[in-house]
Design goal:
It contains five helices and four strands, in the order βαβααβαβα. The chain is an alpha+beta fold. The radius of gyration is 15 Å and the shape is globular.
């Protein structure tokens, strides 16, 4: 079986806020899901290197705090869009996400990458190997 993997969209944003790192990961997932819904994307695999977020999203338990509120909205959207999947990827193997995150430091406003640079393509293909 051949599996074709394609990065369609990458997003970065830099903001000053008072979220914990886990809450920031959840907020980023929520924003990515909303983006996919608005762009009417039929099938999306969201990848996160935050195992806590992925485990909560894929379970029936929600914490009773701000994190739970954010992830509740994620889960509501995911239940409507059943072809959306949230997967865990190890941080060490997620150089693409870290490259995009580094790019956000030099771009203070939200940025959407529709055209992936050759550098990111090489990272994507290395991750697939």
């Amino acid at each position: 079986m051949n599996i074709i993997t394609k990065l369609i969209v990458g997003m970065s944003n830099f903001s000053h806020c008072s979220l914990t790192p886990v809450e920031a990961e959840a907020w980023d997932l929520l924003e990515a899901i909303k983006f996919a819904v608005v762009k009417d994307m039929p099938y999306v695999i969201f990848e996160s290197d935050c195992k806590t977020i992925v485990d909560i999203v894929n379970s029936s338990h929600l914490p009773q705090n701000e994190l739970g509120d954010i992830l509740s909205t994620c889960k509501d959207l995911l239940s409507i869009h059943t072809s959306f999947v949230v997967n865990f990827v190890r941080r060490q193997a997620n150089e693409v996400a870290h490259s995009i995150a580094r790019a956000s430091l030099s771009n203070p406003s939200p940025h959407v990458f529709y055209d992936v640079s050759p550098h990111l393509y090489s990272l994507i293909f290395n991750e697939m190997a």
